[in-house]
């Protein structure tokens, strides 16, 4: 069982501080207790992200987003019982309590059974023309542009590798031979790399129609090849599984302020003036998870973008979900973004 000292929190702890603790601790769960150390609930990364989607105030107490009825183990539970519970419910940690409900410890899947390499296929979109980064991309494809001394696509692959992912497929088109020459089979990176070679641009969705039907993992992560992020992709997979959807889109909060007084009218009648209002929206972050059996919905040899697949699945009454990012994230799509990416080492290390 794990040492709990750093993950035992009071129900009054502000959500923002809870986020900091979760980011600092490898266990990715907080146990909310009363003064007698009785378990009141648990808080995970997923609980907070779902709260953010509902408009959660980060200054609110963590009790507003905790799971008040968490799964628990008795102090006499066996290793096998713990593993069956965790695997049956797709969770990675369970608090251990005594007959009085007091926390005694925390059992984790990794402590009970060593977690192996993640077999999920990662598809990285690396076929774009990079027009907004001309002239830099006239002689080299955008994914091979160096960020802090290393091609940005290599930064992306290495971050996945650090988290246990080993299977990659790169969608290539523009100057594809340069990307294939750099990454090859993936052997020198300790991974397996295959290629989806587009004869013509197929869009972020159309390229997936080139995937072989045999040997696909149950779930597939798809990501644009010009994104730098500190996201823990295992958390994204856990969120997707826990919410029971067939597809999940990562989203980011985008806010802006109108620099003028906005006049509200009704026809020719004045209503009021709102000075410099702020607006906030969730925008597509270019990172997705799909159940692999949904790829059959993508038309073959046609330009098709992944947001179109979400709309199609929604029209088919299938459950599609969104995952709110709170990590470092940068879309390296312009000269200014490229400059900033080279100044920010956190997302590219």
From TrEMBL:
Supply the InterPro entries for this chain: CBS_dom, CBS_dom_sf, Mannose-1P_guanyltransferase, NTP_transferase_dom, Nucleotide-diphossugar_trans
The UniProt entry, under Gene3D superfamilies, shows: CBS-domain (3.10.580.10), Spore Coat Polysaccharide Biosynthesis Protein SpsA, Chain A (3.90.550.10)
Q: Where is the CBS domain?
A: 1-58, 66-122
Matching PROSITE patterns, A to Z? CBS
Cite the Pfam families for this sequence.
CBS (PF00571), NTP_transferase (PF00483)
Keywords from UniProt, A to Z, are: CBS domain
Keyword Ion transport applies: no
**What is the protein name stated in its UniProt record?**
CBS domain-containing protein
Organism the protein comes from:
Mariprofundus erugo
